[in-house]
Specification:
The chain has two domains: 47 residues, 2,3-Dihydroxybiphenyl 1,2-Dioxygenase, domain 1, CATH 3.10.180; 52 residues, 2,3-Dihydroxybiphenyl 1,2-Dioxygenase, domain 1 (Roll). The chain has 120 residues and is an alpha/beta fold. Helices cover 18% and strands 35% of the residues. The strands form two sheets. It has a four-stranded mixed beta sheet, with helices on one face. Strands 5-8-7-6 form a four-stranded mixed beta sheet, covered by helices on one side.
Length: 120
């Protein structure tokens, strides 16, 4: 077996409208058409997609003190300080990377961990 690329990441959400505000408006991901017959929304990020799938609940995660040690999705941003200020202005929690690199972690409205790393 040889894997050549990652196609998508599926993220469970409980409130599609609230999740679309976070992923589409706050993070600025580009929404794409989908032909599935269950509630959700697809977003394109370069050659990768993020699939939001509506579920009655989001399974609990073991919450490590350092958010990056939880399952998470990582995105690259051009300006980490701007991203940080946008998240804080919308009252989303942030945790700076303990490694000292230009990265932070936040949580979407359902508590899914999102990493934002500054491109070099």
């Amino acid at each position: 077996m040889q894997i050549t690329q990652c196609l998508h990441t599926a993220i469970l959400v409980t409130d599609l409208e609230r999740a679309e505000q976070f992923y589409g408006q706050l993070l600025g991901l580009t929404k794409v058409e989908r032909s599935m017959n269950f509630p959700g929304a697809w977003y394109q990020v370069g050659g990768h997609q993020v699939h939001l799938i509506v579920a009655p609940s989001v399974p609990g995660k073991e919450k490590h003190e350092k958010w990056g040690r939880n399952p998470h999705v990582a995105f690259c941003v051009t300006n980490l300080e701007v991203a940080k200020q946008q998240l804080l202005s919308q009252n989303y929690p942030i945790q700076l990377s303990a490694s000292g690199r230009a990265a932070l972690f936040t949580q979407d409205p359902d508590g899914n961990i999102i990493e934002l790393s500054q491109s070099i």
